[in-house]
């Protein structure tokens, strides 16, 4: 019963963050699963199978409320699906112990990027004129985001959402809705890749079911939460969580002396707290209307 509650909460927290930011479901849930000693390929497969259900529900909701650019969805789906399928097959054929620190290093990098983006780029992107993304640019964007989403258990949102948000003339709500809707196809493709490479017997249906349940509960709550909390504050919170959990994984994987654990954790927590304070201060200087329309 205790494990059931823990995994439901992982799915709940991951979907809550993803629904508010348009990113980080895979990164957050995979990061937390890795801390339980689950092999990277199995963790990523479980997360993507759960995402088939959660992204379908999220995409349907975004379509209903008009938050989707259908043209962008079509342009993202094919390259994203190919990248996710190839990434899943690539990850499945590598030994878990060998790839785990590299996956954590990738997730750690994403964590720092998410922190940087929501602390410093959020307000800056309102002031700079950006060229509209061309149709040809969707191909490498989809391939790269899909590949890293499958290999790292997350990356579709953290890569696709910021790139699309950086382009002038695209509403934030349309970007989030479009990326979330397209993610359904990416989750399906990655899951197929894992099943072909790993087989059905490697999937732990308990993890999948609990992640699905937590995600379905969180989906409507996330839609409400995004209205009352600034997105860059949520970005800093999830970035700090990803950094903290992956630092722990890397410390164990690299055999660092235990004497270093406390100062490293203290440094991460101090930096996280300072970043939250900075995000709150930035929000007070920025009118709420600007934050919602950026």
Describe this structure as you would to a colleague.
One of its GO terms (cellular component) is plasma membrane. Helices cover about 80% and strands about 0% of the residues. By secondary structure, it is mainly alpha-helical. It has one domain (about 1-294). The longest helix is centred in the middle third of the chain and has 29 residues, at about 95-125. The chain starts with a helix and ends with a helix. About 50% of the residues are buried.
Descriptive tags:
disordered C terminus, 81% helix, mainly alpha, 294 residues
Order of helical and strand elements: HHHHHHHHHHHH
Rg from alpha-carbon coordinates: 18 Å
Shape, please? Answer: globular
Number of domains: 1
Helix fraction bin: over 70%
Mean pLDDT, rounded to whole units?
77
Secondary structure tally: strands: 0
Main sheet overview: none
So what's the oligomer here?
A: single chain
Give the amount of beta strand, in percent.
under 5%
Low-confidence stretches: 125-130, 288-294
Structural class: mainly alpha
Terminal residue distance: 43 Å
Membrane topology: Multi-pass membrane protein
InterPro entries: TM_pro_TauE-like (IPR002781), TSUP/Inactive_protease-like (IPR051598)
Transmembrane segments: 32-53, 73-96, 102-121, 206-226, 233-254, 260-280
Keywords: Cell membrane, Membrane, Transmembrane, Transmembrane helix
């Amino acid at each position: 019963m205790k494990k059931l509650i823990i995994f439901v909460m992982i799915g709940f927290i991951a979907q809550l963050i993803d629904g508010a930011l348009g990113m980080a479901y895979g990164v957050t849930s995979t990061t937390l699963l890795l801390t339980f000693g689950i092999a990277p390929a199995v963790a990523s497969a479980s997360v993507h199978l759960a995402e088939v259900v959660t992204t379908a529900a999220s995409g349907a909701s975004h379509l209903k409320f008009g938050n989707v650019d259908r043209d962008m969805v079509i342009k993202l789906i094919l390259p994203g699906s190919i990248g996710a399928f190839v990434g899943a097959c690539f990850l499945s054929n590598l030994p878990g112990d060998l790839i785990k620190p590299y996956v954590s290093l990738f997730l750690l990098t994403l964590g720092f990027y998410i922190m940087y983006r929501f602390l410093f780029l959020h307000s800056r992107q309102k002031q700079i004129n950006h060229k509209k993304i061309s149709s040809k640019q969707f191909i490498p964007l989809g391939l790269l985001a899909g590949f890293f989403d499958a290999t790292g258990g997350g990356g579709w949102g953290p890569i696709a959402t910021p790139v699309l948000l950086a382009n002038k003339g695209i509403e934030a709500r349309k970007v989030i809705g479009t990326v979330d809707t397209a993610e359904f196809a990416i989750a399906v493709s990655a899951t197929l890749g894992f099943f072909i490479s790993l087989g059905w017997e490697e999937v732990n249906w308990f993890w999948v079911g609990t992640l699905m349940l937590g995600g379905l509960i969180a989906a409507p709550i996330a839609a409400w939460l995004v209205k009352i909390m600034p997105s860059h504050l949520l970005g800093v919170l999830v970035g700090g969580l990803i950094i903290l959990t992956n630092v722990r994984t890397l410390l164990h994987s690299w055999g660092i002396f235990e004497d270093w654990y406390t100062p490293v954790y203290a440094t991460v927590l101090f930096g996280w707290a300072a970043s939250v304070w900075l995000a709150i201060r930035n929000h007070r200087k920025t009118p709420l209307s600007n934050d919602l329309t950026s």
